[in-house]
Amino acid sequence: MDVLIKIKDREGVVHELQAPTDMAMNIMELCKAYELPVEGTCGGMAMCASCQCYVLNDVPLPEKGDDEEAMLSEAFYVKSNSRLGCQIPITEELEGLELELAPEN
User: Fold this and answer.
1) Are 51 and 84 in contact (CB under 8 A)?
2) Which keywords accompany this UniProt record (predicted)?
3) Which DSSP letter does residue 76 get?
4) pLDDT at 27
5) What CA–CA distance (Å, rounded) separates 65 from 45?
6) φ and ψ at 50, to 5 degrees?
């Protein structure tokens, strides 16, 4: 099953992406699959913050882990709604999620 996720890029364009829930992907990998400008330099290990995004609506997300908290405490452009895309697995609960890519570091 696919879920619809909306991601606003750094130019303000909103992309409506179909995200498969059966491929063990995360938001960073989804962005890369649709060729959105997300580096993912560390390969999803919560060590670079190049996939930082802002959560724009109230969709249940997994809690931030210690590694994600630590990386966000050192990253630029962090807001109260910042998350690392690599730490958000794509599940059916994400239906309707709206995100905005953070500025590049």
Assistant:
1) yes
2) 2Fe-2S, Iron, Iron-sulfur, Metal-binding
3) S
4) 97
5) 11
6) -75, -10
Does residue 92 register a pLDDT over 70?
Answer: yes
Question: For the segment 2-39, what is each residue's pLDDT rounded down to a tens digit?
Answer: 999 999 999 999 999 999 999 999 999 999 999 999 99
Per DSSP (E only), the strands in 30-81 are 52-55
**Helix or strand run (H / E) with residue 27:** helix 27-33
Distance between CA atoms of 24 and 91, rounded to whole angstroms?
A: 8
Cα R_g (the chain), whole angstroms: 12
- Per residue in 43-84, pLDDT (tens digit) is 999 999 999 999 999 999 999 999 999 999 999 999 999 999
Helical (H) or strand (E) element with 33: helix 27-33
43 residue type, one letter: G
Q: How far apart are CA 16 and CA 70, in angstroms?
A: 30
The strand order across the sheet containing 14-20 reads 14-20, 2-8, 98-101, 52-55, 82-84
**pLDDT score of 104:** 86
